[in-house]
From TrEMBL:
Pathway: Amino-acid biosynthesis; L-tryptophan biosynthesis; L-tryptophan from chorismate: step 5/5
EC number: 4.2.1.20
Keywords: Amino-acid biosynthesis, Aromatic amino acid biosynthesis, Lyase, Tryptophan biosynthesis
Gene3D superfamilies (alphabetical): Aldolase class I
Oligomeric and partner information: Tetramer of two alpha and two beta chains.
Top EC group: lyase
Family, per entry: Belongs to the TrpA family.
Protein name, UniProt field: tryptophan synthase
Reaction(s) catalysed (UniProt annotation): (1S,2R)-1-C-(indol-3-yl)glycerol 3-phosphate + L-serine = D-glyceraldehyde 3-phosphate + L-tryptophan + H2O
Length: 181
């Protein structure tokens, strides 16, 4: 089976045609339980979210705030495994037909096996992966396997990133120094 990059692209194109932003929800897998997270993710998609990001809990979620850190801790203490995250993706996608992305740090993917993770995510019906700590310049191994399995690669890049080849954010409108009378 191939991943659902086309479904993701079609969903984003449709929302653009409708003149609106896509509503993208984030929920961590395994919180409060695996079954509970699957039901919550399906509910969010059924309630109108266009896309969902399923978080793969990490033992040291340094880029996440205290709410996600707590949810990740509860999921991990509950014994969550990558297989549970993939089951979550599978069941959410099968129930709703909507794009499901996995958001994770690079280390779990690397340790699991890049090709294995990409293949299993595609087999589960995943649309792609968000890897916030994977620099674009170091992403070729993931991008190769993602492309091979029909998965999107979503990078997290600061709007004012000065990385060559990436567009800068538009300049802010000047602030007027005149005061009303």
């Amino acid at each position: 089976m191939s991943g659902n990059i086309e479904l993701l692209e079609d969903t984003l194109a449709r929302t653009r045609e409708e003149g609106r932003a896509a509503l993208i929800a984030y929920l961590p897998a395994g919180f409060p339980t695996v079954d509970g997270s699957i039901e919550a993710i399906k509910a969010v998609l059924d309630a109108g979210a266009d896309i969902v990001e399923v978080g793969l809990p990490h033992s040291d979620p340094v880029l996440d705030g205290p709410v996600i850190q707590t949810a990740d801790d509860i999921a991990l203490r509950g014994g969550l495994k990558i297989a549970d995250v993939l089951r979550t993706v599978r069941e959410a996608h099968q129930a709703t037909g909507k794009p499901v992305l996995v958001m994770t740090y690079w280390n779990p993917v690397d340790r699991y096996g890049v090709d294995r993770f990409a293949q299993e995510l595609a087999d589960a019906g995943g649309a792609g992966c968000i890897l916030p700590d994977l620099p674009v310049q170091e992403a070729d191994p993931w991008r190769e396997h993602a492309a091979k399995h029909g998965l999107a690669t979503v990078f997290v890049v600061a709007p004012a990133a000065a990385t060559p080849g990436w567009p800068r954010s538009p300049p802010r409108a000047p602030v007027s120094s005149t005061r009303p009378p």
